[in-house]
């Protein structure tokens, strides 16, 4: 060190900027706003059973383990293979052959904003099948871009083919947006007819498949879907932080032929094509235009690898069986609970949503479950807060053991609130 | 299982949507597009010394370790403490008392887009101190929002107070955007005078401090900066995936009084205020409007905790000493290398950028370094590709051992390319 200090000291006060002639190496702490004592403490977290479907989702252990793999530079062959593997895994998840399949950095919500910003141009009309909170948010996203013409229905509604075709004929939208699994209302919107309608009437289908893919049957190509968006932490079982998406050639054509730029530069589809970070053209050089979240890439790759090894049918089966088993056991044990979504065909596979009688408040019950049992359930959104209880057995938690555990903690919980759990008569 | 199958089977074909009356539980794999064989293989990564400053950055071991902590639900007290701790840590990092300090999900680039989308309204003028690749990208971001009036200078230039004041007087901008550390050109732009100028002329300073904070002295409040944005993987030493930022009361006032909405809903400052996810108002209920990347939150908290425990002066010292030591040793050992940034006061602390004579090609050298030594360096951006070599000793790599190792691998590398390394005469 003695040999270098002569070099260091004269340079440092020049480099320090705004601190001319001030040798800050000799400063005491008095020149600095001190750190808060709270962050000097040890981090304190505890295991929680995540079955709310929204507030948090369990990550598959093999996906978490990938965080501990060595970090590499982004342009190495092993990393390019990971990029390709993620694309393979997503194509399998979505059941598509689209080469334009990738995952941006961000949450599912950012993915949805990004897709719409890329697809919608001034003058376009967007038809939204508004069936709950998530579609309502899309209405707001589109409003910030252009003027939408949403279809208005109460939360929990389902659209028929006839209704959608009527709206397409009269509103002539360029984009039809649907939420396949409206998790806030617990409802499943059948979408396989929308692709044909959109092909017939020259519009692009955009689909939120966040609570669907990996959980229940979905076929992007067979159903002629143009754009699908999801997140990483539900059916895939990877941590939050990437938004997977896939584009049909019809969608790519619309984005490539647009005459205005999207508002985003980072997530402009044409930037992705230009920099080729997702190897949309595998014959061109690989280049990135942002810092790659390499550890999140590893974990996403491992989540998709697990799904690919186990197989989609096995994953759909596991989610269907465990969630149906939980619903059946809860309804048998607690006769005062009722199905929130009355029509079985309108229920999402990956959600068990039950309504409470007026004398129970699910917000209090939720608090008891988290405080006494470290079990995180959902107690409704907006108008349903306090009136429903929502479980979601996803990924690592989609099994009978977790279902049985939940029935047992509910027994203790209802007893705690002095609610009878005698069998239905 | 026997007791539940009677329930499951009749429901499933209804739920499956588009597969009416098709019992997909009995499907063979022929109905499904199969997974690609590549993703069924084991993931294959190897340790790499990340000293490029851009292609990848080392994560501090204590930050990585946080990925393995138990996942919790987002509204629990322990998680709210983590949110508060991150804010404390960022305030210390930025040297500010701003309550409006937070970190969105995404990369630094998304942070910059988000800040501009929130701040700029139709009719505003944005003055960009364009001194390299990163500012050039901001010119494009602002163009996608409104029309900017950038100051044009060749990459690597530095702006004086007189120049900036002249531009402010003539262009009357609402926003002045500067890149404090232009890593692509290796230059440091002094910014402490910009705050006073902006206060005097009624404009808002927005500063990219990505390659600065945690690496060399920076004082948000003392220098009267209005908005700063960074990423998590340089001075903090946490994984990529969050974009920290802080807003002065002047910036908050501009965002709160705007009459139009930003293009983003997810990252609208007013959404953050409304949902209170970052507890911008600690007296109001805590609510989130997106899936929280809880594991990234843990790692960011731990990166900031390490910085808070060690202290900023220690971190600045470590970065200055190790990078200066590396520069000195490289210039001594390899007399054919020269400083790319000639003026010492214009050099960034966290970058060692050296130019090559014509007979050497740094792209070939970079390839040799990664293939033979697993060392990732940078070989320039745009016009400088192949002409420079750029090292960045950041975070866990900011020490003399890594510097010495790099000198040794460069000795082997130059010998491999038959370049003399005799002492300077």
The CATH architecture designation of the largest domain in chain A is 3-Layer(aba) Sandwich
What is the subunit organization of this protein? Answer: homodimer
Specify the structural class of chain A: alpha/beta
CATH-defined topology of the largest domain in chain A:
Aspartate Aminotransferase, domain 2
Strand content of chain A: 5-15%
**Biggest sheet character of chain A:** 7 strands, mixed
Number of E-type strands of chain A: 14
Pfam families (chains A, B): Aminotran_5
Family (chains A, B): Belongs to the class-V pyridoxal-phosphate-dependent aminotransferase family.
Signal peptide (chains A, B): 1-18
GO molecular function (chains A, B): alanine-glyoxylate transaminase activity; L-serine-pyruvate transaminase activity
Question: Would you write up a description of this structure?
Answer:
- Chains A, B: Belongs to the class-V pyridoxal-phosphate-dependent aminotransferase family.
- Two copies of one chain form a homodimer.
- Chain A has helices at 2-15, 61-65, 77-94, 108-119, 133-145, 161-171, 192-201, 249-256, 269-275, 294-310, 312-333, 362-373, 400-416, and strands spanning 49-50, 101-105, 126-130, 149-152, 175-179, 181-182, 187-188, 204-208, 227-229, 242-247, 338-339, 352-355, 375-376, 388-391.
- The first copy, chain A, is of the alpha/beta class and 425 residues long.
- Chain A folds into three domains: 2-40, no CATH class; 70-310, Aspartate Aminotransferase, domain 2, CATH 3.40.640.10; 312-416, Aspartate Aminotransferase, domain 1, CATH 3.90.1150.
- In chain A, the strands form four sheets. In chain A, strands 2-10-9-8-5-3-4 form a seven-stranded mixed sheet, with helices on both faces. A three-stranded antiparallel sheet of chain A has the order 11-12-14.
- In chain A, helix 3 crosses helix 10.
- The longest helix of chain A has 22 residues, at 312-333.
- At the A-B interface, helix 1, helix 3, helix 4, helix 5 and helix 10 of A face helix 1, helix 3, helix 4, helix 5 and helix 10 of B.
């Amino acid at each position: 060190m003695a040999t270098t200090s002569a070099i260091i000291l004269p340079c440092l006060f020049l480099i320090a900027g705004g601190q001319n002639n001030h040798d800050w190496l000799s400063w005491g702490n008095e020149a600095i706003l001190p750190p808060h004592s709270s962050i000097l403490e040890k981090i304190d977290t505890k295991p929680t059973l995540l079955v709310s479907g929204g507030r948090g989702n369990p990550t598959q252990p093999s996906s978490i383990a990938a965080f501990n793999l060595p970090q590499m530079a982004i342009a190495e062959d092993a990393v390019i293979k990971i990029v390709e593997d993620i694309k393979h895994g997503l194509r399998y998840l979505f059941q598509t052959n689209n080469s334009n399949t990738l995952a941006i950095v961000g949450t599912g919500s950012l993915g949805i904003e990004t897709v719409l910003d890329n697809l919608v141009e001034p003058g376009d009309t967007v038809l939204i099948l508004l069936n709950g909170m998530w579609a309502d948010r899309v209405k707001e996203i589109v409003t910030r871009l252009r003027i939408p013409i949403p279809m208005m229905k109460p939360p929990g509604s389902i659209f028929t083919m006839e209704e959608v075709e009527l709206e397409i004929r009269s509103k002539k939208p360029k984009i039809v947006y649907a939420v396949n699994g409206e998790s806030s209302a617990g409802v499943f919107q059948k979408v396989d007819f929308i692709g044909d309608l959109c092909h017939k009437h020259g519009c692009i289908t955009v689909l939120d498949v966040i609570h669907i893919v990996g959980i229940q049957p979905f076929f992007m190509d067979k159903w002629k879907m143009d754009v699908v968006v999801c997140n990483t932490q539900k059916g895939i079982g990877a941590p939050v932080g990437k938004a997977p998406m896939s584009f049909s050639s019809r969608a790519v054509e619309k984005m490539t032929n647009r005459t205005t730029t999207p508002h985003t530069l980072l997530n402009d589809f044409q930037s992705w094509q230009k920099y080729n970070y997702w190897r949309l053209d595998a014959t061109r050089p690989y280049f990135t235009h942002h810092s790659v979240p390499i550890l999140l890439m590893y974990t996403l790759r491992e989540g998709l690898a697990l799904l690919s090894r186990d197989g989609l049918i096995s994953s759909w089966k596991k989610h269907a069986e465990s969630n149906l088993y939980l619903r059946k056991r809860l309804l048998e044990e607690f006769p005062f609970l009722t199905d929130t979504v009355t029509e079985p065909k309108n229920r999402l596979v990956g959600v068990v949503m039950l309504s409470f009688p007026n004398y129970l408040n699910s917000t209090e019950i939720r608090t008891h479950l988290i405080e006494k049992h470290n079990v995180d359930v959902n107690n409704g959104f907006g108008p349903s807060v306090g009136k429903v209880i929502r479980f979601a057995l996803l990924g690592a938690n989609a099994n009978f053991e977790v279902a049985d555990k939940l029935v047992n903690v509910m027994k203790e919980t209802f007893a705690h609130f002095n609610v009878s759990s005698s069998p239905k008569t």
